[in-house]
Design goal:
single chain; 476 residues; alpha+beta; 8-stranded mixed beta sheet; 36% helix; binds flavin-adenine dinucleotide; binds iron/sulfur cluster
Length: 476
C-alpha cells in the first residue's frame, strides 16, 4: 500500500501512520482555489494530539499535484541520500550514520547568553542569529511559544532579539504550513529550523518549486529522537495536579546547576503565574526511550541527524558533556558556507568548539541510531513486504531475543499510550492510564536495563549485556 506505483496521497500517508504532520502538503498553492484566500487544507490537531492535514475527501484522496514528490514520507520522493548527494556533492566526508559533511564539532556558544537560553549549547540559536546579523538571511522560520489553543507554533523572526524567544527544544507537535505560505507571499531570504523530516520536506519543496528554492537559502536541522503528541504535556500537567487548560507555557528542559544536562527537569508556567517543576524521571513518560506518545511515523524514520540540513545540531550525550548542566552541542556543518561561518566564530572566540569525527558524533547518538537502524530493520521485518515503507534500511529480524522484545515493548507503548489516555479520560478514570503506564514502563525498563524483579530475572538469561552507551535519558 505504501510503495510506488500505489496512488500516493495525503489520505494514504495518514492511513498508513506515516504522516508526521509537517504541513508541507497543506501549504502548496494548488491547495488554494483561485480567487479564494482560504486554504483548502489546514493542519489540525486530531484527538490523539497529532497534527494532520484536514480537508475535503477529494483533496485528501489527491493532494496537491506534486504531493508524491514533496511529502517526506512518500515512497516516490527522493530519499535523504539522494537529496544530500545533490546538495553537498563536494562534501569532505561521508558517513553512513551521519551523512555528508564538511566539519563536525563539540562545544557551545561562548558569546552572550545563547548557551544559557538554549536547550543544549545554544549553537542553533547562535547560528540563526549570526545569519541575520551578517545579512545572509532576512528572517528565520522556527518554533515559538504562543498563547491560544496550542502551546508552540512555527513563526518567523526577523531579528536576533525576536529569535531569542524561540530558544529551547519543544517536544510538542508543530507544523510549517503557515510559515511556508508566508515565505511564498513575502519576498526575502529565509532560513528554516526543523527536525530531520521537516528539513527533508523543505528540501523536497525546494527541488519542486523555484520560488522556494530562491527564498529558503539555509536549513538548520535538529537531531531527533522522536516527536511527541500534544497529549504528553496534558499528561505531565495532570501528574502535577493541574488542568491542561491552565498551562501558559512549558520548558521541557529547565537548566539547573544541581542536575546533569541529561536529567531533564520540566517547568510548567501556569496562567496565574505559578511555576511547577518536576524531574522527568518522576513522570510516567519521563524515560524518553520508552516511547510514550511518540508519533507513529517516527517508527519509520531513518534520519537521526538531519542529513539534508546545511548544518545540524544535537546534544553531546557522552561524558563528560552529558553531566555538564550548562548543555553541550554536537554540530555537523554540511555546507561549506556554514562551515566557514562556524570557523570564523571559533577564530573570533565567540564559539567554544573543538573538531570531532563521525565516530564521536555517532557515539553521542548511539541509542537513536540503534532505534533507527537495527530497530527500524526489525519493525520493517514485522510488516508484510507489500506494506513496508521504502526506507534506506533493509528489513531484518536477526536480533537477540531481548532486543526484539525491547523494540516490541517500545512500539506497544507508543501505539497504546495515546488512545489509552484518551479512553481513561472519557471514562473519567485517569488512574486507568496511570496504572497501565506505570506497568508498561516497568516492563520496558526491566527489559532495557534489568530494573526490578522482572528485569533481574530476564537479565540472567544470556545474551544480556547493557548497551555500550546511551543518551543518558535512558534511550536504548
Ligand atoms: C522533538 C525533538 C527531538 C530531539 N531529539 C534529539 C536527540 O534524540 N538527540 C539529540 O542530540 N538532540 C535531539 N534534539 C535536539 C536538541 O534537543 C537541541 O534542539 C539541539 O541540540 C540544539 O540545541 P541548542 O541549544 O543549540 O538550540 P537552541 O539554541 O535552544 O535553539 C533551538 C532552535 O530550535 C527550534 N525548535 C525548538 N523545537 C523545535 C521543534 N519541535 N521543531 C523545529 N524547531 C524547533 C527553536 O525555535 C530554536 O530556534 C531534539 C529536538 C527536538 C525538537
Ligand atoms: S506532507 Fe507532511 S503533513 Fe502532508 S501528508 Fe506528508 S507528512 Fe503529512
Ligand atoms: S524521529 Fe524522524 S520522523 Fe520522527 S519527528 Fe524525528 S525526524 Fe521526524
Amino acid at each position: 500500500m505504501l510503495r510506488a506505483p500505489v496512488h500516493i496521497a495525503p489520505a494514504s500517508i495518514v492511513r498508513a501512520g506515516l504522516c508526521i504532520g509537517c504541513g508541507s502538503c497543506a501549504a502548496r498553492p494548488q491547495a488554494i482555489p483561485e480567487g479564494d484566500a482560504a486554504p483548502v487544507a489546514r493542519m489540525r490537531l486530531d484527538t490523539l494530539g497529532e497534527l494532520r492535514p484536514a480537508a475535503a475527501t477529494s483533496w485528501m484522496r489527491e493532494g496537491p499535484r506534486d504531493f508524491a514528490r514533496i511529502c517526506p514520507f512518500s515512497p516516490e520522493a527522493p530519499d535523504e541520500d539522494e537529496l544530500a548527494d545533490a546538495l553537498f556533492a563536494s562534501a569532505a566526508h561521508s558517513d553512513p550514520r551521519i551523512g555528508r559533511f564538511e566539519r563536525a564539532y563539540v562545544g557551545h556558544a561562548a558569546e552572550g547568553d545563547y548557551r544559557q537560553r538554549g536547550s543544549s549549547g545554544g549553537m542553533a540559536g547562535w547560528t540563526a542569529a549570526e545569519l541575520l546579523r551578517r545579512g545572509l538571511v532576512d528572517a528565520v522560520a522556527h518554533v515559538l511559544p504562543v498563547e491560544g489553543s496550542r502551546l508552540f507554533r512555527y513563526g518567523i523572526s526577523r531579528s536576533p532579539l525576536a529569535l531569542a524567544r524561540g530558544a529551547k527544544s519543544r517536544y510538542y507537535p508543530v507544523e510549517m504550513s503557515q510559515v511556508l505560505r508566508e515565505i511564498r507571499e513575502t519576498p526575502g531570504r529565509y532560513a528554516v529550523v526543523g527536525v530531520p523530516c521537516f528539513v527533508k520536506a523543505v528540501q523536497l519543496l525546494r527541488r519542486e518549486d523555484a520560488l522556494m528554492r530562491e527564498r529558503i537559502v539555509f536549513t538548520l536541522g535538529l537531531f531527533c529522537g522522536h516527536m511527541k503528541s500534544a497529549l504528553l504535556v496534558e499528561s505531565f500537567a495532570r501528574q502535577l495536579g493541574v488542568a491542561p487548560r491552565d498551562i501558559l507555557t512549558v520548558d521541557f528542559r529547565l537548566k539547573d546547576p544541581s542536575r546533569p544536562a541529561n536529567r531533564y527537569t520540566l517547568q510548567i508556567t501556569l496562567r496565574d503565574g505559578r511555576l511547577l517543576q518536576r524531574d522527568w524521571f518522576h513522570l510516567i513518560e519521563g524515560d524518553w526511550g520508552s516511547g510514550f506518545f511518540q508519533n507513529p511515523a517516527c517508527n519509520f524514520c531513518d534520519d537521526v541527524v538531519a542529513e539534508t540540513a546545511d548544518i545540524s545540531f544535537g546534544d553531546a550525550w557522552v561524558e563528560p558533556h552529558a553531566s555538564d548542566w550548562r548543555g553541550t552541542n554536537v554540530v555537523i556543518a554540511r555546507s561549506p558556507e556554514l562551515a566557514r561561518l562556524i570557523e570564523a566564530g571559533i577564530a573570533q572566540g565567540r564559539l567554544a568548539l573543538s573538531p570531532v569525527d563521525a565516530d564521536f558524533i555517532a557515539r553521542t547518538q548511539a541509542a537513536g541510531l540503534r532505534q533507527r537502524r537495527e530497530g527500524l530493520a526489525y519493525r520493517l521485518a514485522l510488516r508484510t513486504p507489500a506494506s513496508r515503507p521504502r526506507k534506506r534500511v533493509r528489513a531484518g529480524a536477526s536480533l537477540p531475543w531481548r532486543r526484539r522484545l525491547i523494540y516490541r515493548a517500545r512500539a506497544a507503548i507508543s501505539r497504546w499510550s495515546r488512545p489509552l489516555q484518551r479512553a481513561a479520560l472519557a471514562l473519567h478514570a485517569p488512574w486507568l492510564y496511570g496504572a497501565w503506564g506505570r506497568a508498561a514502563l516497568a516492563v520496558y525498563q526491566g527489559l532495557a536495563y534489568g530494573r526490578g524483579r522482572l528485569g533481574r530475572a530476564l537479565w540472567r538469561v544470556p545474551p544480556l549485556r547493557p548497551p555500550p552507551d546511551g543518551n543518558g535519558q535512558g534511550v536504548d
